[in-house]
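Hey, can you fold this one?
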Amino acid sequence: MEAAAVALAALSLLVSMAVLAVLMTRLSADWTRRMEGAVREDLRTGREESAGAARDLRQEVASGQKAALESLVKAIGEMGGAQAARLDQVARQLKALTDSNETRLEGVRTTLENQMRLLQDSSEKRLDQMRQTVDEKLQSTLEKRLGESFKLVSERLEAVQRGLGEMQSLATGVGDLKRVLTNVKARGTWAEVQLGAILEQTLTPDQYARNVHVRESSPEAVEYAVRLPGPGGDTDSQMWLPIDSKFPQEDYLRLLDAADAADPEAVQKATAGLLRTVSSSAKDISHKYICPPATTDFAIMFLPTEGLYAEVLRQPGLVEELQGQFRIVPAGPTTMTAILSSLRMGFQTVALEKRAHEVQVVLAAVKTEFGKFGSVLARVKKQLNTVSRTIDQTEARTRAMERALRDVQQLPEGPAAEVLSLEQPAPADGGEDECQAPD
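Sure. Predicted structure:
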Protein backbone atom coordinates (compact mmCIF):
# COMPACT_ATOMS: atom_id res chain seq x y z
CA MET A 1 0.00 0.00 0.00
CA GLU A 2 2.85 2.44 0.76
CA ALA A 3 4.41 1.78 -2.68
CA ALA A 4 1.08 2.55 -4.40
CA ALA A 5 0.81 5.85 -2.54
CA VAL A 6 4.34 6.87 -3.56
CA ALA A 7 3.60 5.99 -7.22
CA LEU A 8 0.38 8.03 -7.12
CA ALA A 9 2.25 11.01 -5.71
CA ALA A 10 4.94 10.75 -8.41
CA LEU A 11 2.26 10.59 -11.12
CA SER A 12 0.60 13.74 -9.76
CA LEU A 13 3.91 15.52 -9.78
CA LEU A 14 4.60 14.64 -13.41
CA VAL A 15 1.18 15.90 -14.45
CA SER A 16 1.76 19.18 -12.65
CA MET A 17 5.15 19.65 -14.32
CA ALA A 18 3.64 19.05 -17.76
CA VAL A 19 0.97 21.63 -17.13
CA LEU A 20 3.61 24.04 -15.89
CA ALA A 21 5.68 23.61 -19.05
CA VAL A 22 2.71 24.45 -21.25
CA LEU A 23 1.85 27.55 -19.24
CA MET A 24 5.45 28.74 -19.26
CA THR A 25 5.56 28.73 -23.04
CA ARG A 26 2.49 30.95 -23.28
CA LEU A 27 3.06 33.46 -20.55
CA SER A 28 5.51 36.12 -20.43
CA ALA A 29 8.53 36.26 -18.39
CA ASP A 30 6.91 38.16 -15.54
CA TRP A 31 3.94 36.09 -15.63
CA THR A 32 6.31 33.24 -15.92
CA ARG A 33 8.06 34.31 -12.78
CA ARG A 34 4.73 34.69 -10.97
CA MET A 35 3.60 31.44 -12.25
CA GLU A 36 6.88 29.83 -11.30
CA GLY A 37 6.41 31.08 -7.71
CA ALA A 38 2.85 29.83 -7.73
CA VAL A 39 3.92 26.53 -9.22
CA ARG A 40 6.61 26.22 -6.72
CA GLU A 41 4.09 26.89 -3.99
CA ASP A 42 1.77 24.35 -5.49
CA LEU A 43 4.59 21.87 -5.76
CA ARG A 44 5.51 22.49 -2.17
CA THR A 45 1.91 22.13 -1.14
CA GLY A 46 1.60 18.98 -3.26
CA ARG A 47 4.74 17.55 -1.71
CA GLU A 48 3.46 18.31 1.74
CA GLU A 49 0.11 16.75 0.91
CA SER A 50 1.88 13.73 -0.60
CA ALA A 51 4.09 13.43 2.47
CA GLY A 52 1.03 13.71 4.74
CA ALA A 53 -0.85 11.16 2.68
CA ALA A 54 2.14 8.84 2.72
CA ARG A 55 2.50 9.37 6.47
CA ASP A 56 -1.18 8.66 7.02
CA LEU A 57 -0.93 5.65 4.77
CA ARG A 58 2.08 4.36 6.72
CA GLN A 59 0.27 4.91 10.03
CA GLU A 60 -2.80 3.14 8.70
CA VAL A 61 -0.68 0.19 7.43
CA ALA A 62 1.25 0.07 10.72
CA SER A 63 -1.95 0.07 12.76
CA GLY A 64 -3.40 -2.66 10.52
CA GLN A 65 -0.26 -4.77 10.87
CA LYS A 66 -0.26 -4.22 14.64
CA ALA A 67 -3.93 -5.25 14.89
CA ALA A 68 -3.28 -8.35 12.73
CA LEU A 69 -0.23 -9.23 14.79
CA GLU A 70 -2.14 -8.79 18.03
CA SER A 71 -4.97 -10.96 16.65
CA LEU A 72 -2.44 -13.60 15.54
CA VAL A 73 -0.67 -13.54 18.94
CA LYS A 74 -4.02 -13.79 20.69
CA ALA A 75 -5.05 -16.77 18.50
CA ILE A 76 -1.70 -18.48 19.05
CA GLY A 77 -2.02 -17.88 22.81
CA GLU A 78 -5.50 -19.34 22.81
CA MET A 79 -4.30 -22.36 20.82
CA GLY A 80 -1.34 -22.80 23.25
CA GLY A 81 -3.70 -22.64 26.21
CA ALA A 82 -5.99 -25.21 24.64
CA GLN A 83 -3.05 -27.50 23.88
CA ALA A 84 -1.70 -27.02 27.42
CA ALA A 85 -5.11 -27.93 28.80
CA ARG A 86 -5.25 -31.01 26.60
CA LEU A 87 -1.70 -31.97 27.63
CA ASP A 88 -2.64 -31.50 31.28
CA GLN A 89 -5.66 -33.70 30.77
CA VAL A 90 -3.58 -36.36 29.00
CA ALA A 91 -0.94 -36.15 31.76
CA ARG A 92 -3.61 -36.59 34.41
CA GLN A 93 -5.02 -39.58 32.55
CA LEU A 94 -1.56 -41.14 32.18
CA LYS A 95 -0.80 -40.50 35.85
CA ALA A 96 -4.07 -42.08 36.90
CA LEU A 97 -3.38 -45.01 34.58
CA THR A 98 0.15 -45.36 36.01
CA ASP A 99 -1.18 -45.33 39.56
CA SER A 100 -3.81 -47.91 38.63
CA ASN A 101 -1.15 -50.12 36.98
CA GLU A 102 1.11 -49.80 40.01
CA THR A 103 -1.77 -50.71 42.31
CA ARG A 104 -2.67 -53.72 40.19
CA LEU A 105 0.98 -54.78 39.88
CA GLU A 106 1.39 -54.49 43.63
CA GLY A 107 -1.69 -56.67 44.08
CA VAL A 108 -0.34 -59.23 41.60
CA ARG A 109 3.07 -59.16 43.31
CA THR A 110 1.47 -59.61 46.74
CA THR A 111 -0.66 -62.49 45.45
CA LEU A 112 2.38 -64.18 43.87
CA GLU A 113 4.43 -63.72 47.02
CA ASN A 114 1.64 -65.24 49.12
CA GLN A 115 1.27 -68.16 46.71
CA MET A 116 5.03 -68.74 46.64
CA ARG A 117 5.14 -68.57 50.43
CA LEU A 118 2.27 -71.06 50.70
CA LEU A 119 3.91 -73.32 48.11
CA GLN A 120 7.23 -73.13 49.94
CA ASP A 121 5.57 -73.90 53.28
CA SER A 122 3.69 -76.82 51.74
CA SER A 123 6.88 -78.13 50.13
CA GLU A 124 8.78 -77.85 53.40
CA LYS A 125 5.99 -79.65 55.25
CA ARG A 126 5.94 -82.47 52.70
CA LEU A 127 9.72 -82.76 52.78
CA ASP A 128 9.64 -82.81 56.58
CA GLN A 129 6.98 -85.52 56.52
CA MET A 130 8.96 -87.58 54.01
CA ARG A 131 12.16 -87.05 56.00
CA GLN A 132 10.38 -87.98 59.22
CA THR A 133 8.95 -91.13 57.61
CA VAL A 134 12.36 -92.22 56.32
CA ASP A 135 14.01 -91.36 59.66
CA GLU A 136 11.39 -93.34 61.55
CA LYS A 137 11.86 -96.35 59.27
CA LEU A 138 15.64 -96.20 59.53
CA GLN A 139 15.55 -95.48 63.26
CA SER A 140 13.20 -98.35 63.98
CA THR A 141 15.29 -100.74 61.86
CA LEU A 142 18.53 -99.56 63.47
CA GLU A 143 17.07 -99.80 66.98
CA LYS A 144 15.76 -103.27 66.23
CA ARG A 145 19.13 -104.45 64.91
CA LEU A 146 21.02 -102.90 67.81
CA GLY A 147 18.53 -104.37 70.24
CA GLU A 148 18.91 -107.80 68.71
CA SER A 149 22.69 -107.48 68.74
CA PHE A 150 22.75 -106.42 72.39
CA LYS A 151 20.29 -109.18 73.17
CA LEU A 152 22.53 -111.74 71.48
CA VAL A 153 25.58 -110.45 73.34
CA SER A 154 23.65 -110.52 76.60
CA GLU A 155 22.44 -114.01 75.88
CA ARG A 156 25.96 -115.15 75.06
CA LEU A 157 27.29 -113.62 78.27
CA GLU A 158 24.48 -115.22 80.21
CA ALA A 159 25.22 -118.52 78.46
CA VAL A 160 28.89 -118.18 79.40
CA GLN A 161 27.98 -117.38 82.99
CA ARG A 162 25.62 -120.33 83.09
CA GLY A 163 28.32 -122.48 81.53
CA LEU A 164 30.78 -121.40 84.21
CA GLY A 165 28.24 -122.16 86.89
CA GLU A 166 27.54 -125.52 85.34
CA MET A 167 31.26 -126.24 85.13
CA GLN A 168 31.63 -125.44 88.81
CA SER A 169 28.72 -127.70 89.55
CA LEU A 170 30.28 -130.38 87.39
CA ALA A 171 33.59 -130.00 89.22
CA THR A 172 31.83 -130.58 92.52
CA GLY A 173 29.76 -133.51 91.21
CA VAL A 174 32.26 -135.52 89.21
CA GLY A 175 31.50 -138.58 91.27
CA ASP A 176 27.79 -138.35 90.60
CA LEU A 177 28.51 -137.80 86.90
CA LYS A 178 30.64 -140.94 86.78
CA ARG A 179 27.87 -142.95 88.32
CA VAL A 180 25.43 -141.59 85.80
CA LEU A 181 27.76 -142.22 82.86
CA THR A 182 28.19 -145.88 83.76
CA ASN A 183 24.61 -146.42 82.57
CA VAL A 184 24.41 -146.48 78.77
CA LYS A 185 20.86 -145.14 78.63
CA ALA A 186 21.59 -142.42 81.16
CA ARG A 187 24.77 -141.51 79.28
CA GLY A 188 22.83 -141.10 76.00
CA THR A 189 20.18 -139.06 77.77
CA TRP A 190 22.86 -136.82 79.29
CA ALA A 191 24.44 -136.19 75.85
CA GLU A 192 21.00 -135.43 74.39
CA VAL A 193 20.21 -133.05 77.25
CA GLN A 194 23.53 -131.26 76.77
CA LEU A 195 22.83 -130.90 73.04
CA GLY A 196 19.35 -129.57 73.80
CA ALA A 197 20.79 -127.04 76.24
CA ILE A 198 23.21 -125.74 73.62
CA LEU A 199 20.42 -125.44 71.06
CA GLU A 200 18.17 -123.70 73.53
CA GLN A 201 20.89 -121.22 74.48
CA THR A 202 21.90 -120.45 70.89
CA LEU A 203 18.74 -120.61 68.76
CA THR A 204 15.15 -119.54 69.19
CA PRO A 205 12.47 -122.23 69.65
CA ASP A 206 11.11 -121.74 66.12
CA GLN A 207 14.54 -122.32 64.58
CA TYR A 208 14.89 -125.99 65.63
CA ALA A 209 12.75 -128.98 66.59
CA ARG A 210 13.12 -132.13 68.65
CA ASN A 211 12.48 -135.75 67.60
CA VAL A 212 11.92 -134.91 63.94
CA HIS A 213 10.85 -137.63 61.52
CA VAL A 214 12.81 -136.81 58.39
CA ARG A 215 11.69 -139.90 56.48
CA GLU A 216 7.96 -140.44 56.07
CA SER A 217 8.43 -144.17 55.58
CA SER A 218 10.65 -144.61 58.65
CA PRO A 219 9.71 -144.39 62.33
CA GLU A 220 13.22 -143.22 63.19
CA ALA A 221 13.36 -139.70 64.62
CA VAL A 222 16.52 -137.63 64.91
CA GLU A 223 17.11 -136.11 68.34
CA TYR A 224 17.30 -132.50 67.07
CA ALA A 225 17.06 -130.80 63.68
CA VAL A 226 17.62 -127.17 62.75
CA ARG A 227 14.96 -125.58 60.51
CA LEU A 228 16.58 -124.01 57.40
CA PRO A 229 15.05 -122.13 54.43
CA GLY A 230 14.11 -124.20 51.42
CA PRO A 231 16.15 -124.60 48.24
CA GLY A 232 17.02 -121.30 46.56
CA GLY A 233 16.44 -119.30 49.76
CA ASP A 234 12.65 -119.87 49.62
CA THR A 235 11.35 -118.85 53.05
CA ASP A 236 7.95 -120.45 52.43
CA SER A 237 9.45 -123.97 52.37
CA GLN A 238 11.90 -125.56 54.81
CA MET A 239 14.51 -128.27 55.12
CA TRP A 240 16.12 -129.85 58.19
CA LEU A 241 19.71 -130.09 59.39
CA PRO A 242 19.87 -133.35 61.44
CA ILE A 243 21.92 -133.30 64.68
CA ASP A 244 22.37 -136.51 66.72
CA SER A 245 24.47 -137.03 69.84
CA LYS A 246 26.85 -139.97 70.36
CA PHE A 247 28.95 -140.75 73.45
CA PRO A 248 31.24 -143.87 73.11
CA GLN A 249 32.46 -143.56 76.70
CA GLU A 250 33.88 -147.10 77.19
CA ASP A 251 36.25 -146.89 74.20
CA TYR A 252 37.31 -143.41 75.18
CA LEU A 253 37.98 -144.40 78.81
CA ARG A 254 40.02 -147.43 77.68
CA LEU A 255 42.08 -145.10 75.49
CA LEU A 256 42.66 -142.76 78.42
CA ASP A 257 43.64 -145.60 80.73
CA ALA A 258 46.09 -147.01 78.15
CA ALA A 259 47.60 -143.58 77.63
CA ASP A 260 48.00 -143.11 81.39
CA ALA A 261 49.63 -146.54 81.62
CA ALA A 262 51.97 -145.67 78.74
CA ASP A 263 51.07 -148.91 76.96
CA PRO A 264 51.43 -148.38 73.18
CA GLU A 265 49.77 -151.65 72.25
CA ALA A 266 46.77 -150.95 74.50
CA VAL A 267 46.60 -147.41 73.14
CA GLN A 268 46.58 -148.67 69.56
CA LYS A 269 43.89 -151.25 70.34
CA ALA A 270 41.74 -148.71 72.21
CA THR A 271 42.17 -146.20 69.38
CA ALA A 272 41.08 -148.77 66.78
CA GLY A 273 38.00 -149.57 68.87
CA LEU A 274 37.14 -145.87 69.21
CA LEU A 275 37.51 -145.40 65.45
CA ARG A 276 35.20 -148.33 64.72
CA THR A 277 32.58 -147.03 67.16
CA VAL A 278 32.69 -143.47 65.76
CA SER A 279 32.52 -144.72 62.15
CA SER A 280 29.62 -147.02 63.02
CA SER A 281 27.75 -144.18 64.70
CA ALA A 282 28.36 -141.91 61.68
CA LYS A 283 27.10 -144.62 59.30
CA ASP A 284 24.01 -145.10 61.43
CA ILE A 285 23.22 -141.35 61.40
CA SER A 286 23.83 -141.12 57.65
CA HIS A 287 21.49 -144.00 56.77
CA LYS A 288 18.71 -142.94 59.14
CA TYR A 289 18.59 -139.15 59.01
CA ILE A 290 20.07 -137.84 55.73
CA CYS A 291 17.25 -137.63 53.20
CA PRO A 292 17.50 -134.73 50.68
CA PRO A 293 15.57 -132.64 49.84
CA ALA A 294 13.74 -133.00 53.14
CA THR A 295 17.10 -132.62 54.87
CA THR A 296 20.49 -131.25 54.03
CA ASP A 297 22.98 -133.53 52.31
CA PHE A 298 25.01 -133.76 55.54
CA ALA A 299 24.34 -134.20 59.28
CA ILE A 300 26.12 -133.31 62.50
CA MET A 301 27.29 -135.85 65.06
CA PHE A 302 27.53 -134.25 68.48
CA LEU A 303 30.27 -135.49 70.82
CA PRO A 304 29.41 -134.23 74.34
CA THR A 305 32.97 -133.75 75.65
CA GLU A 306 35.82 -131.67 74.32
CA GLY A 307 38.32 -134.48 75.10
CA LEU A 308 36.43 -137.02 72.99
CA TYR A 309 36.08 -134.49 70.15
CA ALA A 310 39.79 -133.67 70.31
CA GLU A 311 40.67 -137.36 70.19
CA VAL A 312 38.51 -137.83 67.08
CA LEU A 313 40.19 -134.86 65.39
CA ARG A 314 43.62 -136.19 66.36
CA GLN A 315 43.12 -139.42 64.44
CA PRO A 316 44.57 -139.03 60.92
CA GLY A 317 42.01 -139.30 58.11
CA LEU A 318 39.06 -139.96 60.40
CA VAL A 319 37.31 -136.61 59.90
CA GLU A 320 37.86 -136.76 56.14
CA GLU A 321 36.40 -140.26 56.08
CA LEU A 322 33.35 -139.18 58.07
CA GLN A 323 32.72 -136.19 55.82
CA GLY A 324 33.51 -137.87 52.50
CA GLN A 325 32.00 -141.32 52.97
CA PHE A 326 29.14 -140.70 55.40
CA ARG A 327 28.64 -136.91 55.00
CA ILE A 328 28.87 -136.48 58.76
CA VAL A 329 30.45 -133.48 60.51
CA PRO A 330 31.69 -134.22 64.05
CA ALA A 331 31.32 -131.41 66.59
CA GLY A 332 32.16 -130.93 70.25
CA PRO A 333 30.32 -128.54 72.60
CA THR A 334 32.37 -125.49 71.58
CA THR A 335 32.27 -126.36 67.90
CA MET A 336 28.54 -127.02 68.07
CA THR A 337 28.01 -123.63 69.68
CA ALA A 338 30.06 -121.99 66.93
CA ILE A 339 28.14 -123.81 64.18
CA LEU A 340 24.79 -122.89 65.71
CA SER A 341 25.95 -119.28 66.16
CA SER A 342 26.86 -119.15 62.47
CA LEU A 343 23.43 -120.51 61.57
CA ARG A 344 21.80 -117.95 63.83
CA MET A 345 23.73 -115.15 62.15
CA GLY A 346 22.55 -116.53 58.81
CA PHE A 347 18.95 -116.41 60.05
CA GLN A 348 19.48 -112.84 61.16
CA THR A 349 21.03 -111.94 57.81
CA VAL A 350 18.00 -113.34 55.97
CA ALA A 351 15.67 -111.37 58.24
CA LEU A 352 17.73 -108.20 57.76
CA GLU A 353 17.74 -108.68 53.99
CA LYS A 354 13.97 -109.00 54.08
CA ARG A 355 13.64 -105.85 56.17
CA ALA A 356 16.19 -104.08 53.98
CA HIS A 357 14.12 -104.98 50.93
CA GLU A 358 11.04 -103.48 52.57
CA VAL A 359 12.99 -100.31 53.42
CA GLN A 360 14.29 -100.19 49.83
CA VAL A 361 10.73 -100.43 48.50
CA VAL A 362 9.66 -97.55 50.76
CA LEU A 363 12.67 -95.46 49.68
CA ALA A 364 11.94 -96.23 46.02
CA ALA A 365 8.35 -95.03 46.48
CA VAL A 366 9.62 -91.90 48.24
CA LYS A 367 12.11 -91.30 45.42
CA THR A 368 9.37 -91.65 42.79
CA GLU A 369 7.12 -89.22 44.64
CA PHE A 370 10.03 -86.83 45.17
CA GLY A 371 10.82 -86.93 41.45
CA LYS A 372 7.20 -86.00 40.66
CA PHE A 373 7.37 -83.23 43.23
CA GLY A 374 10.59 -81.93 41.65
CA SER A 375 8.90 -81.83 38.21
CA VAL A 376 5.90 -79.92 39.59
CA LEU A 377 8.22 -77.53 41.40
CA ALA A 378 10.21 -76.96 38.18
CA ARG A 379 7.00 -76.13 36.27
CA VAL A 380 5.89 -73.74 39.03
CA LYS A 381 9.33 -72.11 38.96
CA LYS A 382 9.11 -71.69 35.16
CA GLN A 383 5.66 -70.08 35.45
CA LEU A 384 6.82 -67.78 38.23
CA ASN A 385 9.83 -66.76 36.12
CA THR A 386 7.48 -65.93 33.23
CA VAL A 387 5.26 -63.81 35.52
CA SER A 388 8.34 -62.12 36.97
CA ARG A 389 9.64 -61.24 33.49
CA THR A 390 6.19 -59.84 32.56
CA ILE A 391 6.18 -57.71 35.72
CA ASP A 392 9.69 -56.47 34.92
CA GLN A 393 8.59 -55.52 31.39
CA THR A 394 5.54 -53.71 32.79
CA GLU A 395 7.71 -51.87 35.30
CA ALA A 396 10.07 -50.83 32.47
CA ARG A 397 7.11 -49.49 30.48
CA THR A 398 5.82 -47.69 33.57
CA ARG A 399 9.20 -46.06 34.16
CA ALA A 400 9.33 -45.01 30.49
CA MET A 401 5.87 -43.38 30.80
CA GLU A 402 6.94 -41.68 34.02
CA ARG A 403 10.04 -40.27 32.32
CA ALA A 404 7.89 -39.02 29.41
CA LEU A 405 5.42 -37.36 31.84
CA ARG A 406 8.03 -36.05 34.24
CA ASP A 407 7.43 -32.39 33.18
CA VAL A 408 3.62 -32.69 33.14
CA GLN A 409 1.78 -31.30 36.12
CA GLN A 410 0.09 -33.92 38.32
CA LEU A 411 -3.60 -33.64 39.26
CA PRO A 412 -4.87 -34.45 42.76
CA GLU A 413 -6.32 -37.90 43.24
CA GLY A 414 -9.97 -36.78 43.20
CA PRO A 415 -9.94 -34.84 39.91
CA ALA A 416 -7.79 -37.51 38.30
CA ALA A 417 -10.36 -40.18 39.23
CA GLU A 418 -13.14 -38.01 37.82
CA VAL A 419 -11.29 -37.41 34.54
CA LEU A 420 -10.54 -41.14 34.14
CA SER A 421 -14.00 -42.21 35.39
CA LEU A 422 -12.44 -44.26 38.22
CA GLU A 423 -14.11 -45.20 41.47
CA GLN A 424 -12.99 -43.31 44.51
CA PRO A 425 -10.99 -45.55 46.92
CA ALA A 426 -12.83 -46.40 50.12
CA PRO A 427 -11.39 -44.78 53.28
CA ALA A 428 -9.29 -47.04 55.49
CA ASP A 429 -11.02 -48.61 58.52
CA GLY A 430 -10.42 -47.08 61.91
CA GLY A 431 -9.41 -43.70 60.46
CA GLU A 432 -5.93 -44.86 59.53
CA ASP A 433 -3.71 -42.74 57.31
CA GLU A 434 -4.28 -43.50 53.59
CA CYS A 435 -0.51 -43.31 53.01
CA GLN A 436 0.26 -45.98 55.58
CA ALA A 437 2.59 -48.61 54.15
CA PRO A 438 1.04 -52.05 53.62
CA ASP A 439 2.02 -54.83 55.99
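The first strand starts at residue 208 and ends at 212. Let me know if you want another pass with a different chain boundary.
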